[in-house]
């Protein structure tokens, strides 16, 4: 079994465990940032700005990160990212604990830096896995990678919100500890894989190569647009849940558990993904996922119970992982390997940029329209996206192509 041989791959285990730990810490502070702002100001608009700062680097640096990941020694870049993230979260923890003046500006800067580290580190991890595993081990390796995010969301959000209730600086201290652990594991990796051929990160021609690949393929182009818009919807719903639970006077750990259920769903989705993708084309899975999200938003429209919200968010997380797997399989088969990470960066630019804009828009929408109208708007928007995908990504050519997931999947993106 490739999975058993993969577990004996020392370099992969070090890489995966270190980055998984770092992601746990990152998702812990990712929920602590808006909770801190809501507790301090009571303003969903301010919380939206913090979410925007965390996600803005995905809009600004994604293409450059793709060029770096295609050309650099990925392990070395990951180590540099961890040092930078450690410094940012350390400054935030000190500022919160010391009640420094202008805390708002310090948190904005720290969130922006941590979001930047996430962008560069995420793409480099994809390339690093390709460097440390054999071709036969790649399907199992990327199944592990697909499960990394939901595990981190589950543990990070739950523990981050829980320890935030004890002291608001604790999630940042935990994030610093996770970065230190990741640094240790990365430095223990023994790899003699040479760095890829240099790519000039500032060259517009090299960056445009990735954009051109996406634009010339109809399914890649359309699914990227729809994924970006659906990310906006999910970001609004995420802040909606936080505001609802906060206004209902639930303790902070309740929000962590509710949103952490996306991790439970993600793990279940990752476990089911390989079987589903063996029998259903990526295009059909993608369309079905959008309709599943629409159905899951309906109970959120009708109920404020934490149990209902947790169950729906669990389903949303599971469907999200299935969507990622479906898109990854299609992208790896359709995109030439030498431009893969730049093309992924171009798609992620749209998707992560939409996350940033969604986080910002969520605060203003909730502040102006209110909770109940926002629910209805998001449900209608997701339904419209699912309907559009059903009519604009369904072609006999696409659905007749059966792509085996074992054919060397190399990437994971939203």
What would you note in describing this structure?
It is built from 16 helices and no strands. It is mostly helical and 414 residues long. Helix 10 packs antiparallel against helix 11 (252-277). The longest helix has 32 residues, at 10-41. The radius of gyration is 20 Å and the shape is globular. The model is unreliable at 199-204 and 396-414 (pLDDT under 50).
Entry summary:
The protein has 414 residues and is an all-alpha fold.
Query: Rg to the nearest angstrom?
Result: 20 Å
Give the H and E element order.
HHHHHHHHHHHHHHHH
What's the end-to-end separation, in Å? 28 Å
Beta strand %: under 5%
Number of E strands: 0
What's the number of helices? Answer: 16
Unreliable stretches covering 5 or more consecutive residues: 199-204, 396-414
Shape by Cα distribution? globular
Proportion of helical residues: over 70%
Structural class: mainly alpha
- How much is the average pLDDT? 82
The largest pleated sheet is described as: none
Task: Give the SSE map.
Elements: H1 2-7, H2 10-41, H3 44-60, H4 62-71, H5 74-98, H6 103-132, H7 138-166, H8 170-188, H9 204-215, H10 218-247, H11 252-277, H12 282-302, H13 306-334, H14 340-369, H15 371-392, H16 396-400
